[in-house]
Amino acid sequence: MTDDTYRPDPRRWKALTVCLAAGFMTLLDVSIVNVALPSVKEALDASDAVLQWVVSGYALTIGLVLVAAGRVGDALGRRTVFIAGVVVFAVGSLLAGTAQDGTWLVVARLVQGVGSGIVGPQVSGLIQQLFRGPERGIAFGRFGTTVGISTAVGPLLGGLILAVAGPEHGWRWVFLVNLPVAVLAVVLALRYLDPPARRERVADLDLVGALLLGLGVVGVLWPTVSRSWGALSLVVAGAGVVALAGFVGWEQRVTARGDVPMVQPSLFRRPGFSAGALLGLLYFSGFTAIFFVLALFFQDGAGYTPLQAGVAITPFALGSAVSSVAGGRWVGRGGRRVVVAGLVVVLVGVAATDVVVGLRSAGADVGLWTALPLLVAGVGSGLVIAPNQTVTLSRVPVPQAGAAGGVLQTGQRLGAATGIAVVGSLYFAGVADGDGAAGVAHGLRATLALLGLSLAVGVLDLVRTSRSTPAGEPV
Question: Which of 198, 298, 354, 411 is deepest in the core (most CB within 10 A)?
Fold first, then answer.
């Protein structure tokens, strides 16, 4: 898609660096807390349910605000909303670092999630706004590297912090370390991100649509996040489905009367967008759960310290770091093929990890044996995240970039919350029976199933688009 009005901003790469630094900070908190969970449990006498809420609640509130935050950024200016999100995230980090009980910590994590959800779509929207052509693929490649490394290296950094500060108070610094990064991000954003050229009226924003979407997301996810499938939870889930249906109908009504909806219905008719969003949801449901299960297993099952557990998971981050850069460059030529190839490699790596853990789970050297399979899985992951984002958003107009990025990332975050809830429940069920090896096996095999579903979506979309794409163009 060409844009004759596009003029490259000479500061665009510095602006990207600022965005990625903030994105790294918020995404790091998806996984850095995993190795701190045993310390949190002991320090705050937290239950397993509280620990799962500390992880899943963060992903839940991210998903709640992503689309609305993306739309607000499109309307009021991405710099303003970006800075607001960083500030909210910093406040949540301060509250988490000073928590006195499990409930306090859970609430703080929910606040952190809101801040992260505000920041996320501004990053993808700014990439759409600042870059065109091959540069956009490279920029998304760096974003993919940030996503992969931040999520995978979180356990290592968390382990380092706990090793230096000690298990009693080290978990607090896992959160407080965000504060100087947040301050620096705000200062540099004011310098390198331009204020909006135009603003829409706040009254024109689709507040009803935002409310319906938020209620729908909360309702649908409630049973998995709360780990309860009783009658009340099922009623809440049903109400969530009704709210989502109401959201779809409302958006169509807003569009029909000529107003601007929260999400343009036509967005889902753009080639590859719906498939890419679904693929991202399924992939992140498995991708994020890998670190949750392995971080717990290495500590509870293999007797590793938090630092050792973090080191054991690091090969995934290394593989992802290398391949994300390459994926950002290859996607311009290979399109969805790059994503499908990456998914196959991830499945091979995770399956090999499952086999190795089954054979060596009782040995202290299990982390050494899983290094190569996790490296392979990381290489595959780097070919999935950024290329899928690039392909999925490639035909979205820049004025809709924030909302579209919010939709895509909502799927990713909801997938992460659901995956951790489902896979985590299987892990804890195995551990409750006194068999840590069975717990991690159940968790990894559930992850493989979710990754397999994402591969099926990618293959189907590749077949469909191959039939309708002219020869020589990326699929």
Answer: 298
Query: Is residue 98 over pLDDT 70?
Result: yes
Q: Is the pLDDT of residue 228 over 80?
A: no
pLDDT tens string 44-58: 888 877 887 888 788
Query: Residue 433: pLDDT band by 50, 70, 90 thresholds?
Result: low
Provide CB contacts within 8 A for 69, sequence distance 6+: 81, 85, 117, 118, 120, 121, 122, 402, 406
* Amino acid letter, residue 234: L
For residue 472, what pLDDT is reported? 54
The CATH number fitting domain 12-193+262-465, selected from 3.40.640.10, 3.30.470.20, 1.20.1250.20, 3.40.50.720:
1.20.1250.20
Burial of 433 (0-12, 13-18, 19+ CB in 10 A): exposed
- The sign of the dihedral angle between the CA atoms of 324, 329, 335, 340 is negative
Number of H helices, E strands in the chain: 18, 0
Please name the residues in contact with 424: beta carbons below 8 A apart, sequence gap of 6 or more.
52, 55, 56, 289, 292, 293, 443
Distance CA 102, CA 50 (A): 6
The answer to whether residue 474 scores a pLDDT higher than 60 is no
Residue boundaries of the structural domains of the chain: 12-193+262-465, 206-261
Q: Smallest Cα–Cα separation from 349: which of 313, 314, 376?
A: 376
pLDDT tens digits, residue range 357-390?
888 766 668 888 989 999 999 999 989 988 898 8
**Across 91-100, 278-287, 356-365, 441-450, least confident range:** 356-365
Assign 467 a pLDDT band (cuts: 50, 70, 90).
low
- Cα–Cα distance, 54 to 417 (Å, whole number): 11
Cα 334 to chain centroid distance, Å, stands at: 24
Mean pLDDT of the chain: 84
CB of 365 within 8 A of CB of 239? Answer: no
Listing DSSP states for 451-468 in one string gives HHHHHHHHHHHHHHHHHH
CA distance 18 to 300: 37
CB-CB neighbours of 109 under 10 Å = 27
Is 122 in contact with 69 (CB distance < 8 Å)? yes
For residue 235, give Cα distances in angstroms to 216, 230, 231, 232: 12, 9, 6, 5
What pTM value is reported for the model? 0.77
Structure confidence at residue 293 (pLDDT):
85
**Distance (Å, whole) CA 141 – CA 382:** 9
Q: 100: which residues sit within 8 A by CB, 6+ positions away?
A: 44
